[in-house]
Structure formats: structure tokens, C-alpha cells
Batch of 2 targets.
Target 1
Amino acid sequence: MSDISNNSPGGDGRQILAGAHVLLADRDANTASAVADALRDQGAAHVHTVGSAQAFLDAGRTPPPTVPRWDVAVWDTGLTGDDEALTAFLCQWHEQHPRVPLVVNEETPSTRRALAVLRGRAADMVERRDADGLVAALTRALHERPADAEPRSRVHMLVVGAHPDDVEIGAGGTIHRRADEGWDVTILTLSRGAGGGDPDERRDEAHRAAAAMGARLVMEDLPDGSITDDSHTVRTIERTVAETRPDVVLVHSDSDTHQDHRAVHRATLVACRRVPRVACYQSPSATVAYRPNRFVGLRDGDLEAKLTAINAHHSQAASRWYLEEDLLRSTARYWGRFSQARYAEPLEVIRDATPLGFFPADHV
Ligand SMILES: [Zn+2]
């Protein structure tokens, strides 16, 4: 491995990685040390080497005292095993450190491996021991990494539903109220509702509905009617969780007769295990075991926006009893009994781990 530094670009004194703090994992300590020297030659301020997944994750969370934060990380796939384990590990890193790009070192690059790396949202893959390639990949990753976020003052809420129109019915008024109050609200709909009509039409309806509530919409394409709570669904939800970093998540209740709703509930709880506030909205298929303990008061405008959003789902209106306006209005009026407002939407709180007083009492 002595040829690494000799082959590195920038031998003319250019400091390609000037000031960068790099976390580097490699199965072999001598290789790690040689690569670290090569990166320091390119100006890296600090290269911290580790030899295991646990040490990598620990150092990711708690950098050494001399490192203010990691700028970029390098992972050796020899430490993670098969493609599935690699993707899961990379997703874990991305979820914990969405702003620290990760470049993967691979002994024998292949399309199959590249796909696993892509699914794990890593920044790049290079052949292990290719120092030039690694420096170039790190330079690109540093150049393209997301801009540092300002400290967030806005609350981010993610609302997850199995089908188009689920979140509108369960939490449409809450979404409108919070968006109107300045929260960033993202709706994640996991299927395109092929079981209830033309998917393209339903997608357009869902976008119109999201706009009526002031929210952004992310649509995935899991199979309507047979959504599972397996790792694929969890990872699908984790992608949006990593991107939006929500403070609050709303989802279907487990007390629901629809199998998709229950599966989405369970997968979301796994994907959102680090989100401080998680609560469940009421779907028309909720059972009497649904037990709300938080009630979001709705203003007249919030209820009207909810009805507008639901009306955007034209293709469903004729065939679904639960979309009838008098039922939607009277349900909101009924739940108003439990709040200070005339209308309300109920929530079943799963977890509320924010410091006391961070939100007013009804701010889920
Ligand atoms: Zn549904």
C-alpha cells in the first residue's frame, strides 16, 4: 500500500481536501493508515481510522474532541457482508448523518454492488486501494454535500398514509392548521391507490388535495391491498424520514380493520423510532379500540380546507360512504366535545418525548 501517496493527485501542493475531517473505516489497519496518509497529503485536517461497524457508528455519533464534526466518511464494504447488509448499514448511516456524505470502498466493484450502494444513499463507490479515485470521489462528495442547515426554527410534521385520501380524512384539518401556523408539513402516501381507480388520476387528485392543505406530497408505489410491515416498507418510509427529519409524525392507528393501515402503522413506528412525537389519526376503518387522548381544535377554515382536500378526490366521491360531507362535518363536530373548539380531530398519542412546554398542550 506504499504506492497510495505516490499515486495521489495534488502532489504539486494543491490541497484538494483542505481542512476536511474524515472518518475512515477499513478492515485492515495498515491499509487504513496508508489511505489516511494519502488523504492528509491532500490537506485533510483529520483522518480518524476505525476497523468495525460499531466503532464507525460510535465515532460518527461522538467525534474525537479535536474534530468539530465530520465532513465526509469512507466505508469499506468488507466490513458489512452481503448487499442487503450493506444497504441497511448505509441507510442507517444516512439516517443518522444525512449531511455527512459517505463514500464506499469496494474490493470488486459490480453493478449489483453499485445498486446496493445506491439504495443505501451513499455518495459514491470506488475500488478499494484506488487512492486517486477515492480522493476524486471525496472531493465530489464534499462539493455536492447539502448546504449546512440553519438551526431549524420551523416544526416539521410528517403525515403517513397507506392510500391517497387517507391522511386527508384522518388529519386534513390538523395539516391545514399547522401549515397555516408555519409548520413544514410533508404527506407520505405509500401506494397510488390502484385498487380504487386509475393510479394517474389518483396521483393528480392527491397533489391537488395536498396543495389545498398547504402540504408537500411524496408518493411511493407499494402494492395497494398488500402492503406489508417488512424491511422494504420500513426503508421506504425511512427515506422520507431522513429527508424531512420530522419533529412530529402522524400515522394510521393499529386499531384498524384495513390490513394496509395496520402494516403502515407498524412500519412507520419502526422507521420513526427516533422521532420525538408520534400519534395516530382516525381512519374510517378504525375500530372502537381506537382510543384518542389528544384533540386538535380546528378553526372553520381548517375544516373547510379539509373538505376541499377530500373533494379533490373526485374519483372516490361517488363510491365511498365515508367521504360524504355531512358525516365529515358531524364527526369533526363530535370530537369538538373534547377540545376547546367547535370542531376537532382526534389523535392517539404513541410517544411524546419533547421537553415539557416545547409545544402548547394541543400542539401535536
Ligand atoms: Zn386507506
Note: The chain has two domains: 3-144, 156-352.
Target 2
Amino acid sequence: MQSIVVNSLLLPLLPLMLPCVLILLALKLWNIYIENTRDMNCSAPLPDGSMGIPFIGETVQFMFQGVDFYRKKFQKHGPIFKTHIIGKPTIRVIGTENVRRILQGDGDIVEQLYPKTIRSLLTSNSESILFSNGQVHERLRKVTSKVFHISRLASYVPFIQKYTDEAATRWCTGGRVSGQDECRSLLFRIAGKVMCNFDYDENETRHLSNVYQTMVDNIFSLPIDLPGSGFNKALKARNILHSKVEANLRDKREHAQCESEFVDALSLISDAMGECGKPVSAQQLKGFALELLFAGHTTSATAATMMLLYLAKHPDVLEKVRQELEEHDLENNVAPLTLEAVTKLKYVHCVVKEVLRISPPIGAGFRRVIKTFELGGKQIPAGWTVIFSIRETQNLAPNYSKPEEFDPERFMPDRQEDKKGDRFSYLPFSGGPRNCIGKQLALLMLKILLIQLTKSCRWKLVDPENVVVNLLPSPYPVDGLPLQFTRLDCNANRLDIKGKDRNGDVAC
Ligand code: HEM
């Protein structure tokens, strides 16, 4: 009698219970499947974390929460946790010791990993600096390292200075400007010259910089080439950039480069590959050009934008830069800058370094695990993706006092906070065998930008109360960083130490 009553109560609930049971079953099977992808020869357990729902994993949460997704996981599970995003079982790793193990194990326990779409857009070369691994990568690194070696930098200084001055002049006369767009355009002009000897004026550069940006904005789209699709837009943009490189190569064949110290990266790579008995075709050079632009442009433009933002918020820092220029007789000096003069400026170096610490343009790196290993007592299985965090590793490193504060002095000789801790606590250019090849060039571009702007103008945030910075895929102010520039009229508009000009306005 009793069971008849229970059954009659449960019966109407059956249609509701069935989907719940199926969902629970699917989740159970999904977790069994994931557990089976672990390496059975390794006794260490998988890291803590959740693998989300079948196939989709936690991708949706990641898309909506961005960096907060990682923050919450870190708070719950600690510095090594597992998740499942963008179709892959993934382990994210934070902290100097953990990151060191991964970066020093490059080529041995892990290898470089980029989404296939990125590779298919940028290059069809098997010889590729970004996408190759093993011996091919080693050989290409040797060649490209020479191209960006510090000994080549002196020949880049004159045009970096010229382009920066031209941009600054325009910014000061143009009313409100978008700091982000302007930095992208300026850095594209410089990178185009260094890599390919592009010699476009500011208007042509702006157009090409926008084309390039269209490619980058759509680079993570699904590889479906239909009219109007993201991938289609990226392909079209890529083809325009290719045609510019091609025209430039033709031009170089027809008119030998004039006798200047400056030789562009593509020519140097082409010569060096020829010397190694691996001559390169025009097709391959187009691939190299886009790879190098991709690696070097977005990163530098991001750093430049964030530098403008931090200096607008910290007029005292800008004043110290000015004082350093004055001490080195550079403040009112209209003579061309030299590499030697730039290298002597210690405080300028610290400002750029601090921008890259507090807001690294690349927040994390991706690797595929090729050999199972253990990290902090947890198993990192072969076949999984491992993401090493640059941003959180720098932010959490104990050697930095008040790490959330923008404080360039932390790197000055009397404090040297980066030297007081693990070498891997300062990682904007990564570390190990795949660290950044363009590091010296990037630092030089940012320092010259800082020097020339400090010499010639001041800038302030148009909307200081509402600056919101998103961190993915790279840090960027959501409103594009509207700025108002004013030209410094010789000494008439100098700032005092509090950053006030003679009218009492905070200039930055
Ligand atoms: C502030 C600017 C820059 C930052 C923060 C930066 C950062 C980085 C980082 C973190 C990596 C390693 C990525 C990984 O391990 O997966 C890297 C690699 C690389 N960077 Fe930069 N970079 C900058 C500018 C440049 C410039 C100007 C160039 C010049 C072309 C460049 C060329 C490269 C190349 C070719 C690689 C790949 C190296 C390899 O795989 O062996 N970077 N960069």
C-alpha cells in the first residue's frame, strides 16, 4: 500500500528526473574519460580543479570571466590547477619555481603551442621561428637572434626618433587622440621599417596598421573561409600585408638598398639563411615578415599604450624622467639621440621595466606537454596543454614590495628588487630557450618614446575617473585611452615636482 503511494508520487517527477540522471551520467563519463588521459605510469595525482561539462569544459566561464576565471581557480586550488578550455585538458601554473621548470624544460618536457588558425594565417613555412620546435627552431633562432642583436640597435635609433617626433607633433595639434590607436600606428611604422624597410608616411601607415589590426582581431576565429566570417576578414587583411611585403622585396631587387648602416630584418635573415646553405624564397620571406610583425608589434604597442596611461596617472614619475634628461643634457637638446645616450639613462630604463612588470603585454605562455612530469607533487600528463602565468607570477613574487603599485624606483641600483628574488620573478620577455628575441629592440623603442615625449609634450587623461583596463588577450584600456596632448614651449611650460604647470593644472 505504502509503495503504491510512493510510486504514484514519484511518477509525475520521472520526466524531470530523467534529464538530471542523464546529465549526471554524462558528467561521470566525462570525468572518467579525462582521468583516463592521465599517465598511468606516473603515480602522482592530477592537479585539483574542474573539467566542466563534456567537450565544452569550462570554456564558457572562461570567455565570460576572463582573468577572473583564473583568479578564482587560483584562490580555490592554489598555484597548479586543472581545467578544460578551448577544447583541451589544460593545467595552469603560477609561481617562479613552477614556471622555471616549464621554461627550462622547453624542447625536453614541453614544446611551443599556438592555435592552428594562427599558424595557417601567418605562414606556410616549415621553417618558422614561432611555430617550429627542435633543431629547426634552434637554427632559426641563431639566425634571427643576430638580426635583433644589441649591436644592430644603433642603426635603428635615427628613424625611431624621427617617427616618434612626427607622431608627437601631430598628437599635440590634433585635440583629443586615442592613445591606443596612436601607439599602434606609431609602433607599426617603426616595426615595418625594422622588419621590412617599409617607408610609408603616417597616413599610409595608419591604413596598414588598421589592416594589420583587422588580421589580429580575427586571428582566433574558427577557420571557416566564408564571406563575412572572421577568418575571411583575417585572410583578406593578411593578403594585403603580403602584397606590401612582396612589392617591397621587388623594389629592393630593382634598387639596391642605399648605403646606410641600416639593413632591414628580412634582408639580414635572407643573407644569413643563404650563408647556412638554406636560401629562402619570396614566399618564405613573406611568412617571416608576418611572424615577426605578429611577435613584435602588438606586444610593443600594448606596452607603449600602458606606459602613456601609467605616466598620465603618475606625473611625479614623469618629472623624474625630465630631471634625468636634464642631468644628461638631453632635455632641450635637439641633436639626434644616440644609443649610447639612451643606454646611460637609468631611471628611464626603470620606468619601462616597471610598465612591463605591472602590466606585461603577454600575460601567459602556452605549451604542449610532450613528456609527463611532476610539479609540486602533481602529475602534468603528456598530451595536455600547460599554461605558465607571467602576469600572476610577477604580481605574486614576494621580492616586490607593494607589487600593485607603479613604482619604477624598485629597480634603481639602491633597491634592485628584481635581483633580491628568483630570476623568474621578472618575466615579461619570458625565459629559457624560447625567450623573446626582440627584447632589446622593444626596450629601445619604448625608451625613445618616453624620452621624446618627455622632452616635447605633456598629456592628460580625458576621462581619468573611468579608465578600465581589460587584460585579455593583452592589457588594453576599454575606451582606447583618450588623451589630450599639449606641446611644451621650451621652458615656459615646465612642471614642478608635483606635476603642476604654471597655470596650476596637473599636466598629466
Ligand atoms: C614589449 C614588447 C615585447 C614583449 C613584452 C615580448 C614578449 C615576448 C614573450 C613573453 C615571448 C615568449 C612567448 C612564449 O614563451 O610563448 C616572446 C617571444 C618572441 N618575441 Fe617578443 N616581446 C616583445 C617584443 C618583441 C619584438 C619587438 C620582437 C621583434 C621581432 C619580438 C620577437 C619575438 C619572437 C620572434 C619570439 C619567439 C621566440 C621563439 O619562439 O624562440 N618580440 N616575446
Note: The chain is about 50% helix and 10% strand.
